[in-house]
Amino acid sequence: MDGVTETEQAATGAGLVVGDDGRARPLWASVDPMLRAYYDTEWGLPVRDEHGVYERLSLEAFQAGLSWATILRKRAAFRAAFANFDPDVVAEFTDADVARLLADAGIVRNRLKILAAVTNAKATVALRDEGGLADFVWSFQPPETPRPRSHAEVPTTSPESVALSKALRKKGFAFVGPTTMFALMEAIGMVDTHLVGSHRRGTSGVWPGE
């Protein structure tokens, strides 16, 4: 390819796109500035606090069947609607709050997902007696992480995400299927599914670089 460096050729061949800043990213994070910023500064970095894990668990549940870009664009509205995802507050939401949320055009108005967020807030509060949501989720961290070289090689579930899904359901959580839990594990740094060659690969501090 004329005018393209060997590094850029390798990145392109691996399903990566080299941006104007010289950094290689997957296609999904290379076009939309919002997704690019999310990829560069947040996705895959460790989240180990209850509030952070509860928020991301909630957003991943709302994302089911939709694009992540849709959820990200509505994130500020979600935070306003759900009391900044404070589990103690959301756990006390009433039928009136559910009705309010169903009328809020700024969020995803899905009754089952809204009810799941309330249910999961209650389960999060209850789980404090056993060490808390964050430690519970992180106890399912796998012994190794995938090393995908293309989008097709990125898994959507794992034995650990299946086990986490089952364990959370037993604790009273809802909308925590294996695929959603794997997406959560990716988002909070429990696994590193950045493509090999991406500038973010190995930057979480959880997994060694390539």
TrEMBL record:
Zn(2+) binds at residue 194. Keywords: Metal-binding, Zinc. One of its GO terms (molecular function) is DNA-3-methyladenine glycosylase activity. Transmembrane segments: none annotated. It comes from the Bacteria. InterPro entries: Adenine_glyco (IPR005019), DNA-3mA_glycosylase (IPR052891), DNA_glycosylase (IPR011257). One of its GO terms (biological process) is base-excision repair. PANTHER family: DNA-3-METHYLADENINE GLYCOSYLASE 1, DNA-3-METHYLADENINE GLYCOSYLASE I. This is DNA-3-methyladenine glycosylase I.
